[in-house]
């Protein structure tokens, strides 16, 4: 077996909007299909909603995928909160700190300052104004405890930290009523507590009373004068009264028969909304004009529990916090709320595929988006479908979309009218359809324990089973090129499909685990096959010029767990997990010489990556797992003077040129221009002298010219 290469990236992470090394650059172009909304607030006639990828400005008139007015790409990971007042919005952005946003021009927000998190381990999850708007209050989670922090707004563009409250668990619910702060928390050993603090002087908050820590679940909290409303999970809603000693006394309760996640009291109406449902959501409107006798008035159902709620001028925003988006609800008649509109976001990204200028994004649970990226700067979502059940991957052959739906088999969707996609047929595959690809007049399916299945597309709307090949392995991925099907199972199987009715096993490769441990994904370039490890930290590279005997030629390691991979010309982009939940790291590697790869640099991007996809000769798609899709423009450069093509200019390049000019050695690679150090259009002894001056005498560096 050929020796491998441990790349060991230095993790000098670069600005995600502009990355450049000596031989390749990435420049952020745009992003779309944002998902997993975290929080939202009203700003004039707009809605500001934060996502793992940044801030969306939405038209509050009607929420849908066409409501996006603007986007501010500022990756920050999961969690966080946002509030706005007096032309400023304050955004608690996880471990990316506290951001101040200028909203003077409501459609074009801009960040004016960022205050770093107080600790590298801290995670800002919520932000509120004090009652007089002179201070901000933020809640931060740590591995086993939490803090509530106070920030002076004496300078609205630069919040200044003035005080902290330590919590023995993670902060869960927070509410401010006049000069009192109420905070619920949960510990790592399953207990909860509620604290009430006097914050009349935010620079000197102090504990007043609360509920003792115990074996109950304290979620959201809302206080209103003499009463405190507490969401207690399966124990329902608890109403607490404040006695003359400022102690909290249980007064009444209401158990709706499900999980209660949060509670919001609507001013003086006497109505309170409670929210719940782990396996299904809902909102209950309760009359608490007599706090000792709650009365249920109405129930409003949806698919999941909202993560946050914002209320203004008779309207309420329900933010899912998972993958169901944002709902705008009319509460002008608080006794009977009415859904006005719904901004439905995609789910957890399962796969992305490219068909001509269309990007197909399959998401969990069961949603599809098809975007036209013929103009990469303005991708247009042309198809949205949210009712297919489980969806693992898809491929498109006009006008039909073929969907691998796991145990539900294969779904065929007619996209002739993109405004009204129609499911035209479903077929039950023998196993569990994980992946599929259309090639010619046939459909190839990676069907889990049933191996590779082949269907005829003689009737494209109604595929007919043709043949199957049991590989005695769990088939998860299939890539078809020419007359060969490459099937990923954790190992690689190469199948001859020159006669699709009689697929025959041709070759097999099992990773040793040194680099690609559990290889499922498959990427082909010329006679090479790249196998990123799903459980390891590296990539196996195979020579498949003889498909009956795939040969290991190189292994790359040291990335960390690989989450995404893409080939773009001579370059490999490798996305790997990090311990930082707000970002994944994308490494750039020059693989022109597959046996001697050259690590170039690393790039930090928000959200975790589920896939990378080379869209074209100059664009790369980054799929943020649970966040959305971003497009980067990619430009490769000639590094003048890098005669041996290793991405660096050293004495080795001088030796290489001496061999070429005087001893008939090999030409500079991968392009002869890389040996033209002085940029005079030829390679001669003058280039050797130029490099000697640069490497040993501090002379001018060779020029870097765009390819």
| Continuous helix count | 2
The name of the CATH superfamily of the largest domain reads YVTN repeat-like/Quinoprotein amine dehydrogenase
Ends distance: 35 Å
Alpha-beta content class: mainly beta
Number of strands: 59
State mean pLDDT (0 to 100 scale).
84
| Count of individual domains | 3
Bulk shape: globular
Q: Bin the strand percentage.
A: over 45%
Q: At the third CATH level, what is the topology name of the largest domain?
A: Methylamine Dehydrogenase, Chain H
Quaternary = single chain
- Radius of gyration, rounded? 29 Å
Low-confidence stretches: 7-21
CATH architecture of the largest domain: 7 Propeller
Helix content: under 10%
> Biggest sheet: strands, sense, closure?
6 strands, antiparallel
CATH class of the largest domain: Mainly Beta
